[in-house]
Automatic annotation (TrEMBL):
<keyword id="KW-0547">Nucleotide-binding</keyword>
<dbReference type="InterPro" id="IPR011994">
    <property type="entry name" value="Cytidylate_kinase_dom"/>
</dbReference>
<dbReference type="InterPro" id="IPR003136">
    <property type="entry name" value="Cytidylate_kin"/>
</dbReference>
<dbReference type="Pfam" id="PF02224">
    <property type="entry name" value="Cytidylate_kin"/>
</dbReference>
<comment type="similarity">
    <text>Belongs to the cytidylate kinase family. Type 1 subfamily.</text>
</comment>
<keyword id="KW-0067">ATP-binding</keyword>
<dbReference type="GO" id="GO:0016301">
    <property type="term" value="F:kinase activity"/>
</dbReference>
<feature type="domain" description="Cytidylate kinase">
    <location>
        <begin position="6"/>
        <end position="217"/>
    </location>
</feature>
<dbReference type="InterPro" id="IPR027417">
    <property type="entry name" value="P-loop_NTPase"/>
</dbReference>
<protein>
    <recommendedName>
        <fullName>Cytidylate kinase</fullName>
        <ecNumber>2.7.4.25</ecNumber>
    </recommendedName>
</protein>
<keyword id="KW-0418">Kinase</keyword>
<keyword id="KW-0808">Transferase</keyword>
<keyword id="KW-0963">Cytoplasm</keyword>
<feature type="binding site">
    <location>
        <begin position="10"/>
        <end position="18"/>
    </location>
    <ligand>
        <name>ATP</name>
    </ligand>
</feature>
Length: 220
């Protein structure tokens, strides 16, 4: 079979990562978490004392960190300059700063190049999840899925992941991040015209996975 390229976009807390990983594993495809790459570059900026409120300072060093993503869905990895950052990129500090860093065009150009090269080198195909994969990174993807869910469902899922985090605070933080991601100038979070929209509010993770697997199989 020819390599199949699947783009899965949507806001935070819609089940993008869990769905994308499971679909890739079931179909024997590679998996790329593009949010992890933006988190990794944000982690590097914070660690190197770059002023997050200064886009030109961010732009000036956007090419410096070396970001490497491992694309096995059974155990995706992410390193920055050889350092394993899988844990540190999930802190609230990184979550609250990533939108500002990912809005800088020089950061997006850089990360988008990495994403395209990983997608074209995946032997059997790849599931790529993010915000602008269907619209900007891989506009010729074989299948584009846009996942949505109510803010309540998204906050509940995310606070479950963060084990006991306050649902209200999580909801506010998510809404703020989505608003920033959707309103930025360079490749904002958006549904591609030819994407299939799946509202996951009342679906189990298993149902979402089955739905996407079926959609991929129709394309193969
Ligand atoms: O998916 P995740 O929530 O880990 O993404 C973290 C952040 O990375 C998003 O809030 C967004 O600012 C940025 N991002 C992006 N484009 C992508 C993926 C993520 O701008 N394709």
């Amino acid at each position: 079979a020819k390599p199949v390229i699947v783009a899965i976009d949507g806001p935070a807390g819609t089940g993008k990562s869990s769905t994308s990983k499971a679909v890739a594993a079931q179909l024997g495809l590679s998996y790329l978490d593009t949010g992890a790459q933006y988190r990794a570059i944000t982690w590097w900026m914070v660690n190197n004392g770059i002023d997050i409120d200064d886009p030109s300072a961010i732009a000036a060093v956007a090419g410096k960190p070396e970001i490497v993503s491992g694309t096995d869905p059974a155990g995706p990895t992410i390193t920055v300059d050889g350092i394993d950052v899988a844990g540190p990129i999930r802190t609230q500090e990184v979550s609250s700063k990533v939108s500002a860093v990912s809005a800088v065009p020089e950061v997006r150009t850089r990360i988008t190049e990495l994403q395209r090269s990983l997608a074209t080198s995946a032997q059997d195909g790849i599931v790529v999840e993010g915000r602008d994969i269907g619209t900007t990174v891989l506009p010729d993807a074989d299948l584009k899925v846009f996942l949505t869910a109510s803010p309540e469902a998204r906050a509940a899922r995310r606070s479950g992941e963060l084990k006991g985090a306050d649902v209200h605070a999580t909801r506010e933080a998510l809404i703020k991040r989505d608003a920033a991601d959707s309103s930025r100038k360079t490749s904002p979070l958006a549904k591609a015209d030819d994407a299939v929209e799946v509202d996951t509010t009342d679906l189990t993770l298993q149902q979402v996975i089955e739905c996407v697997v079926t959609l991929v199989e129709e394309k193969r």
